Amino acid sequence: MKRMPRILLVNKFYYPRGGDCICMINLEALLRRLGYEVAVYSMVYSQNLPSEMSGYFASEISFSDGLKNKTRAACRIFGLGDIKKSFKKILNDFRPDIVHFHNIHSYLSPVVVKLAKDYGCRTVWTLHDYKLLCPSYNCLCQGKICEACFTDRFQVFRRKCMKGSRIASALAYGEALWWNRKKLQRWVDTFVCPSSFMAQKMRACGYDYTKLSVICNFIEQDKLDFFHSTEINEGEKSGYYCYVGRLSEEKGVRMLLEVAVSLPFPLYIAGDGPLLNELQAKYSSGNVIFLGHLSSREIVRLVKHAQTMVVPSIWYENNPLSVIESLCMGTPVIGAEVGGIPELIREGDGMLFRMGDKEELASAIVSVMSKDNVDTQGIARRAQKRFSEERYWAELRNVYDL
């Protein structure tokens, strides 16, 4: 009987820290349910989930605690230090057939991709951000969309794009030169792009299109069951709209609030971030309510009862889980026409508006909020089919060449 392939998943953190971590953890659970032998490689970190493989993890590094630790962290960026030894050990002991990388820059290192390829593994890398194209990850410069580094990586240093720091930006520049496209294309069999937008940007920057595969993220069945456990009846929307996410400039929440104060509908803001205190002081009013950090169940109830959720981003969102989850709950989404957002919002699922356009955003909010009936069940049914585990696995299985 043929042995099931062994699959090693690699991400710099192993707890639900952000979208990249959540996607990898969900994939691990899916692969285990399908009967595959799965292992995880990450960095030692206090908040990590329990793992029988934690003894193999790369040692923890920090970019903020003293010169010695910063030097170790800088070495890690270029694949120096203990990471080669620990990754070779898990390769030799677990003997994977496939290694699937997620977010590995800085706290791990792309050196692990080379090691996996040298070992003879099939290598797959899901791109959760724009790090391979933009050394500072997010294609933003001084709050504006920027593609300067697509053709000249030195711009990250000249413009101090990494945390406004010349030293951090110099490291990012060196990292981009060292782990360049020529090397990465040689070591990676397939780059998985969660959005067509990401794939288009990769191809425009010279990546071989035959190595790019577009596979949208999925919602795991347990999460769908969780959504159903807080089911509401058709027509029970509560007359408010909401924003759920980080309160930071690139998310466009400042513009949303500028629009919201002139509209008669209640807006609930869930989340925290660097702008929380400023925005709360300026915009708290009768129709703008800041909820702060909410539990998962509280977020589900908030979104399911909302008339619509707004995603007003002013940066290249890739494949935001917030949009996918809202649609799977049956709540339409008003999204900025930027990045991968338009690929998720189809006719009947909400509305798009021109990024940064306050008038269009206000018009979209009024239009959706004024609807008497929302086809909650239809939105949820379509979304749950589009973003199902079955659809995702059928596409990823081809990439794995199984």
UniProtKB/TrEMBL annotation:
Residues 25-221 form the Glycosyltransferase subfamily 4-like N-terminal domain. Gene3D superfamilies: Glycogen Phosphorylase B. It holds the Pfam family Glycos_transf_1. It comes from the Bacteria. Residues 231-373 form the Glycosyl transferase family domain. GO terms for molecular function: glycosyltransferase activity. This is Glycosyltransferase subfamily 4-like N-terminal domain-containing protein.
